[in-house]
Protein: histidine kinase
Amino acid sequence: MAMTAARRRWLPDTLLVRILAPGVFALVVLLLVSLVVHASLLRQAAERGAAEVAAHRVAGVAEAIAAVARPDRSRIAQALSAPDLALSWGDAPDLPSDRARAAPDLAHVGRLAEVTREIRVAPGLSDAEHGALRDVAVSVQLVDGSWVNARVLAVSLIAADDAAFRVAVGTVAAALLICVALASRVAAAPLARLARAVRHLPPDGDAPLPHVGGPQEVRDVTEALDGALRRVRDLLRQRSLALGALSHDLMSPLARLKLRADELPDLVLRQTVQRDLAEMEGMVGDVLAYLRGADGGGEPAVPVSVTDLVQVVVDEFAETGTDVEERRLDEATVLARPVALKRVLRNLVENAVKYGANPWIEVLTDHPGVEVRVGDHGPGVPPEDLARVFEPFFRGDRARAAGGGSGLGLPTAKAIAEAHGGALELVSAPGGGTIAVLKLPPTSAVTPARLPSKPSA
Structure:
């Protein structure tokens, strides 16, 4: 678990990385093994070449020493020595015990096979600075059992072009790495396109997922996801039809009850029943609006002047005797469903009027997008309730104390805001009160639909 967390901290957990990382690791291991094997083979070739060079020099000497009498052999060996070749004759081989080995493969050199019974060598010590092997020792046993010992002080080597080898290996590694990276990107690209297509699907659209290409597995996922989306859309469409029927079935009896309530002779009872019916009608409307969700009841989206829409809502509240302060109204246009967006604004202002005091509203375009802020100077929302106010049917203590309401106003407003590509949040105002912030994406190069403003009462 800790290793997985560390890996995600250092590397992005993407398909590209998951494909590329094992390939890079295998490539690094392969390169290291290749370099080790290359160095080992170079060492073996150098030792074999040095031993053959030394054996060639000893071959003629051994034949000459074998041709003279034993008492003269030491003198002859010393006479045949050279500055880079030390010769001696004796009854035992003179080799470093830690490096000595038998070398029957050198019997073919010169006439060694005719005058010797055994050949032993001791590979030299590497002298990288001078490109040579030093202290290469060869001992050959003559047919009479005596030994001719030769020590070649330095055998020059044909320098292997390690730099060229490393450049070649690096070039191959880079080419393989580029191929692996390109293959990984090609494999991951269809999934990235599919993710983008799903994220940009309109919430109320019936368009199928675009063809993203890629291997068969990705095409299968695309088809399965497209089928699931069609089933979800069908279910939502059926729910909308059922809600339409439910709306008719519920509203019609309520309308009849309201008419009958108007005929009640008792004034107090009539007002009580009318108030209860109005509350019931509002609750049914809230439930239907929430269940209708983000589709807006099929209302088309058009360019709308947010400033005009805010003015209409403010004027409607003014007609009922409620003043809403207009602080700053920047001219802003968005692509929206006017009725749905107006419902959001009305709900936010109603909450500010009902649960606060001195409501105010403003439209800001200082940042990318449009912000509509609705605030009040009331007691505010308790911090523990701020995270829950958008839960369906949730009502805080103050809302329950005020009476009425279904707990669906803010969830419905949030759903409508998100369906417009925006967001809705509540924040506590400095010094008391609550501010509802409605964020909407901007619409450029459009002509807003001008909404008629109602005159203030």
